[in-house]
């Protein structure tokens, strides 16, 4: 990966997290202000020892830290990540968090989570409103599927058409549909159409765990099958030196005619690393014989045409009023899948060490080319995940405070400042341990 691509990914990660953090903290900041609770600091990024920029307006210092991840608001009279407990030794003041009624403190604490949920749903909706939804109807995938080794071992064959997985019909073609059904919903049967007949293929019980290991995590059981045609040729590439041009169709490699489809072409080229290959090519009305000496990368430097040149693409457009509820539906569906995945981890069906990751794993989600649609989609997903994790009843997270406030509201008994100090410290230790574990797993995967 080039330095420019690394910068692009880092820029997207920082921008995405900055948007999420600032709006999350606004969810705490504004309710605190509404209830006349003093907010001492509002910072984007963390600022141990010094800040890059700060300005004071009223009682609040607004600033930019130098560690480019995260951010925080410091609310008077509250035990938080600053662990400033000196103020708690003083008598409570009317502007402090601890002096406010439980219902006001509850609103202040859940504000960040509510904002992140709403933001995620809103971004999903705006993606649909702006770009719509492009897809292939399963009925229009006329060449069927292309199968790699994992799908072949499962019993799938090139040209099969997926009918359903675990009894759920695949109306819209999706390469990840079967993986999702197997991993999250324990699907044990894939129904395919083959040579005009429907066939049931049994899914091995151990496949769900296998699909979530590092080796197979980003692989698909199948992909869409479509014809092969040269769409682009890189300058000074082996393909250009061999004489290939845009629009060419390779009909044989070393007299092997099984290169009709794009995946077959790629597979055949990979077989001839460091060899000289003969290429039979159709160009217009002519058939040409070309040769190329492949190197150790076994690539010609050509780009193949996309499937939309051979298959009918369906486009679903949304008005603003249609996009809003559909965005909520997409966001809740994504959240449901994440909760199911965590459930499978606890059951031991998904390998935790291959699927738990740190900020470095998050960075790999972004595309080096910086595609805005993908950027906003990832940001929407991260917003929903951030909301979900923050509402977990773990001390030091918003959900931990909410749990204690709910208990206080029910019992009428307020937890002491000392108790909150102890459980918050314990919560931070748990979070730091989990973060170090996640970073360790990322490092281990990198060198594995």
Task: Name a few traits of the molecule.
single chain; 448 residues; alpha+beta; 4-stranded mixed β-sheet; 13 helices
Strand order of the largest sheet: 2-3-1-4
The arrangement of helices and strands along the chain is HEEEEHEEHEEHEEHEEHEHEEEEHHHHHH
Helix content: 40-55%
| Poorly predicted parts | none
How many DSSP E strands?
A: 17
Total helical elements? 13
The backbone outline, from C-alpha atoms, is elongated
Distance between the termini: 18 Å
Q: How much of the polypeptide forms β-strand, as a percent range?
A: 15-25%
Helix-and-strand structural type: alpha+beta
* Residue-averaged pLDDT: 88
Task: Give your account of this protein's structure.
By secondary structure, this protein is α+β, with helices and mostly antiparallel strands. It has helices spanning about 5-35, 100-130, 150-155, 175-185, 205-210, 240, 260-270, 320-345, 350-355, 360-365, 370-390, 400-410, 415-445; strands at about 40-45, 55, 60-65, 65-75, 135, 145, 160-165, 170, 190-195, 195-200, 220-225, 230-235, 250-255, 275-285, 285-295, 300-305, 315. The strands form six sheets. Strands 2-3-1-4 form a four-stranded mixed sheet, with helices on one face. A four-stranded antiparallel sheet has the order 8-7-9-10, with helices on one face. A three-stranded antiparallel sheet has the order 13-14-15. Helix 2 runs antiparallel to helix 11 (about 370-390), helix 2 (about 100-130) crosses helix 12 (about 400-410) and helix 4 crosses helix 8 (about 320-345). The radius of gyration is 27 Å and the shape is elongated.
């Amino acid at each position: 990966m080039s330095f420019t691509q690394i910068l692009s990914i880092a820029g997207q990660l920082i921008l995405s997290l900055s948007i999420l953090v600032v709006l999350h903290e606004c969810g705490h900041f504004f309710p605190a202000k509404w209830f006349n609770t003093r907010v001492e600091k509002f910072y984007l990024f963390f600022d141990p020892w010094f800040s890059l920029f700060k300005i004071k307006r009223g009682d609040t210092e607004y600033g930019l830290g130098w560690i480019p991840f995260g951010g925080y608001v410091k609310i008077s009279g509250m035990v938080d990540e600053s662990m400033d407990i000196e103020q708690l030794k003083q008598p409570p003041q009317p502007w402090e968090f601890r002096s406010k009624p439980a219902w006001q403190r509850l609103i202040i604490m859940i504000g960040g989570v509510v904002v992140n949920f709403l933001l995620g749903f809103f971004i999903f909706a705006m993606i649909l409103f702006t770009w719509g939804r492009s897809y292939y109807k399963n009925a229009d995938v006329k060449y069927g599927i292309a199968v790699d080794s994992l799908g072949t071992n499962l019993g799938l064959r090139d040209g099969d058409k997926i009918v359903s997985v675990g009894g759920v019909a695949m109306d819209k073609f999706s390469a990840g549909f079967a993986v999702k059904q197997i991993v999250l919903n324990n699907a044990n049967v894939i129904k395919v159409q083959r040579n005009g007949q429907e066939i049931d293929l049994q899914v091995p019980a151990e496949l769900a765990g296998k699909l979530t290991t590092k080796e197979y995590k980003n692989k698909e059981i199948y992909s869409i099958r479509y014809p092969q045609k040269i769409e682009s040729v890189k300058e000074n590439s082996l393909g250009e030196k061999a004489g290939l041009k845009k629009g060419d169709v390779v009909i044989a490699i070393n007299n092997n005619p099984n290169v009709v489809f794009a995946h077959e072409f790629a597979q055949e080229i990979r077989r001839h690393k460091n060899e000289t290959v003969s290429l039979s090519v159709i160009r217009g009305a002519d058939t040409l014989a070309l040769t190329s000496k492949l190197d150790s990368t076994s690539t010609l430097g050509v780009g193949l045409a996309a499937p939309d040149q051979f298959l009918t693409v369906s486009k679903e457009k949304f008005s603003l009023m249609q996009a809003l509820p559909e965005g909520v539906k997409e966001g809740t569906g994504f959240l449901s899948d994440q909760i199911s995945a965590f459930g499978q981890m606890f059951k031991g069906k998904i390998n935790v060490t291959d699927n738990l990751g740190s900020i470095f794993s998050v960075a790999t989600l972004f595309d080096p080319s910086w595609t805005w649609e993908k950027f906003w989609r990832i940001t929407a997903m991260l917003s929903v995940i951030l909301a979900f994790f923050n509402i977990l009843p773990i001390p030091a997270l918003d959900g931990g405070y909410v749990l204690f406030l709910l208990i206080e509201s029910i019992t009428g008994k307020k937890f002491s400042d000392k108790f909150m100090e102890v459980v918050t410290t314990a919560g931070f230790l748990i979070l730091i341990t989990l973060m170090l574990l996640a970073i360790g797993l990322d490092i281990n995967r990198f060198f594995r």
